[in-house]
Every structure is written in structure tokens, then in C-alpha cells.
């Protein structure tokens, strides 16, 4: 019988550990966006189908920020203030949400192709 090599869970957390995130699979790419909020958060976003990422400590240990067209909430830890993810306000089947990859091991971050996205002006990838 063949033995499958199981990959360890991909776990990350905010700085204080109150919010913990487990990804369902390794990301193959990440997005570095320069829109008005992403450039301030310095988020490095990876995307998964909503509901497939395990987020422990949410919503009891998080705060949300909703702005603009009011379709998504950016979520951060109440204690340390680190942005952990964003999610749609009214999730629909197949909809995505973003996870801040900077909350994971630097080796994982370095293993992912990072794409530059111009969310400030052209709304296109610029790499």
C-alpha cells in the first residue's frame, strides 16, 4: 500500500495569536495591491472560496472595517490590530475572500509568486 505524504496544515496568526488561520491548501500566488487601504495595511492577499479557510477567534476577537461600496469587510484582531483577512458582507456560493499571507511563516510567503495589482488607478495587474 502506497503511503501518501501529507502536508502539514498551513497555519498562521495575528501578532498576539488571538486570531488563528488555517489555509485549505498552499497558495500558488499572492496579490500585492496599491489601493488606498491595501497600501496602508501592507497586506499580501491570497484568495480562497469563502468558507474554506478556518478562522479561529473570529468574530469574537476581531473588529471589522467596512467602507467604499460596502461589499466587503476588512477584519483585524481587537488586541494587536493586525489585519487578518477580508470577507464579503453577503457571501454567495463560490465567492472569494482574501487572507493576509503576511500572518504566516516567512518561508511560505517566499515560496509564493507575488503579483502587483494597481488597485489605485487602472484596476489591472502591472507585473
Helix/strand layout:
Elements lengths: L9 E4 L6 E4 L5 E5 L4 H4 L3 E5 L4 E3 L5 E5 L5 E6 L5 E6 L7 E5 L5 H5 L2 E6 L5 E2 L2
Parallel strand pairs: 3-10
Antiparallel strand pairs: 1-2, 2-5, 4-9, 6-7, 7-8, 8-9, 10-11
What is the chains' assembly state? single chain
Shape: globular
* Radius of gyration from the alpha-carbon trace, in angstroms: 15 Å
Please give the largest β-sheet: 5 strands, antiparallel
The count of domains is 1
Question: What is the third-level CATH name, the topology?
Answer: Metal Binding Protein, Guanine Nucleotide Exchange Factor, Chain A
The helix-and-strand class reads mainly beta
Strand order of the largest sheet: 4-9-8-7-6
Instruction: Report the sheet-strand fraction.
Output: 35-45%
Jot down its keywords:
single chain; three-stranded antiparallel sheet; five-stranded antiparallel sheet; about 130 residues; mainly beta; Metal Binding Protein, Guanine Nucleotide Exchange Factor, Chain A
Explain this structure to me?
It is a single chain. 7% of the residues lie in helices and 40% in strands. The chain has a five-stranded antiparallel sheet with strand order 4-9-8-7-6, with no helix packed on it. The protein is globular and about 35 Å long. With 127 residues, the protein is mainly beta. The protein has one domain (12-125): Metal Binding Protein, Guanine Nucleotide Exchange Factor, Chain A (Beta Complex), CATH 2.170.150.70. The termini are far apart. The model has no long low-confidence stretch (mean pLDDT 93).
Amino acid at each position: 500500500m502506497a503511503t501518501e505524504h501529507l502536508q502539514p496544515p498551513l497555519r498562521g496568526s495575528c501578532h498576539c495569536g488571538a486570531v488563528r488561520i488555517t489555509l485549505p491548501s498552499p497558495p500558488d500566488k499572492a496579490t500585492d495591491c496599491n489601493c488606498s487601504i491595501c497600501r496602508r495595511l501592507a497586506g499580501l492577499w491570497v484568495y480562497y472560496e469563502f468558507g474554506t479557510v478556518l478562522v479561529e477567534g473570529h468574530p469574537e476577537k476581531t473588529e471589522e472595517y467596512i467602507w467604499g461600496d460596502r461589499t466587503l469587510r476588512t477584519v483585524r484582531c481587537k488586541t494587536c490590530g493586525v489585519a487578518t483577512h477580508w470577507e464579503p458582507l453577503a457571501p454567495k456560493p463560490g465567492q472569494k475572500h482574501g487572507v493576509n499571507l503576511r500572518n504566516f511563516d516567512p518561508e511560505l510567503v517566499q515560496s509564493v509568486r507575488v503579483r502587483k495589482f494597481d488597485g489605485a488607478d487602472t484596476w489591472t495587474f502591472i507585473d
